[in-house]
Amino acid sequence: MRSHLKPTAAACGALLLGAALTGCGGASRADAREITVYSADGLRGAKGDGFYDRVFKDYEKRTGIKVNLVESGSGAAVQRLAREKANTKADIVVTLPPFIQQADGKGLLETYRPKGSEQVAAADKDPNGKWTAVVNNYFCFIYNKQQLKQPPRTWQDLTDARFENKLQYSTPGVAGDGTAVVVQALHDFGGQGPAMAFLKKLQANNVGPSSSTGQLAPKTDKGELLVANGDVQMNYANMKSMPNQGIFFPAARPGAKPSTFALPYAAGLVKNAPHAAQARKFLDHLLSPEVQKQVSAVGGGFAARTDVRPTDRNAAELAKIMNDVDIFRPDWNDIDKNLSTYLDAWKTATGS
To answer: Which band of pLDDT confidence, cut at 50, 70 and 90, is reported for residue 117?
Structure first.
């Protein structure tokens, strides 16, 4: 979702983790007891205590199947899948809208409806079965609670001179959360023209491009930044190690209610996956009630299954964060279709 490729443990010249392939670029063994997941970052803990860490470890212990993780920005994950289309290396991709739709449009996904996907809301899965949300999430901003007594209330507040070189958001088109900044602005300002006019004005305070949203959280926690973009799951999950960051949602204008939108981690079976049968079983596992209950308890996120209603402490705190925030649903088909237009307009407006 947020960064350049960051393998957790290197193999094949540091391109993939573990032994997801037998040889670099060669065909994998049909009986290899492992799968490879290309994923947007945010679900692995910095100290090995995140959602992915727990789920992958438990799954290997239960089944003997090793799950190898390759993290990247949401857009970068799809670009890599496209480059490798003739020699597919990943089995599963987990990325954010509109990049999961982009992967489908490029013919990179295979139809598969995991067990339990019938309990996922229609808006959070592809009607043709190409992808399904496995962790729900929401776009947000973060601020340094030590240096700011209150978070900025509106988008306009972000243009205040006190935020000059103290505000940064990740690059749209590269990072999923960065693209979400554009999506939110299109909604709050009522269209491309006014949204880009505002982002042009905001550029006076923006530190500059960042391919990684994840890198902005520690900068905000340390006070190097006062404001940055993020997402609720990632920022809530890392508050244990970064306690100075607070989550907020700027309103479109004074007196307006703040809003946000769902930005789920959506998983799809990669077309021509080297270990497709094993990948299907793992997708089933991700949507099992047992794992879905861990989404909040371990990962600090929101269960994708509507019939799973966790009662853990994290779930209660997350509900408080989302209280009094309007949730809107972007037209992802429109965004997918016109993404290049929006990104070109953003580049022109900001000089990026």
So the answer is: very high
